[in-house]
Design a protein that fits this description.
InterPro entries: DsrC-like_C (IPR042072), DsrC-like_dom_sf (IPR025526), DsrC-like_N (IPR043163), DsrC/TusE (IPR007453). It is found in: Cytoplasm. Part of a sulfur-relay system. The chain is mainly alpha-helical and about 110 residues long. It has a single domain, classed as DsrC protein, C-terminal domain (Arc Repressor Mutant, subunit A, Orthogonal Bundle), CATH 1.10.10.370. It has a two-stranded antiparallel sheet.
Amino acid sequence: MAEILGAEVDEEGYLLNETDWTREIANAMSEEDGIELSPEHWEVINFLQDYYKEYEFAPAVRVLTKAIAKKLGNDKGNSRYLYSLFPYGPAKQGCRFAGLPKPTGCV
């Protein structure tokens, strides 16, 4: 089993236990992907964690885009902006950094 900072992850890098998540783990995951997390990244990561707490599932990209637009505005709730932050997929990569399961419907 693979690990990141002592936390077990699956073959795609998602945490096996959500309670293992820390900001340090998110930063380590992002470094592996060549991304330095900015306040804009954290805004989306925190949004994803709040969404998961409320709805108990990780949103796919279309749902995520609409939900962010509703809460944070159209300038942030669009694919171009979200993919500029998470080039491997705002839902997939964002959820991985947020310590959440792989979003429903993502391959």
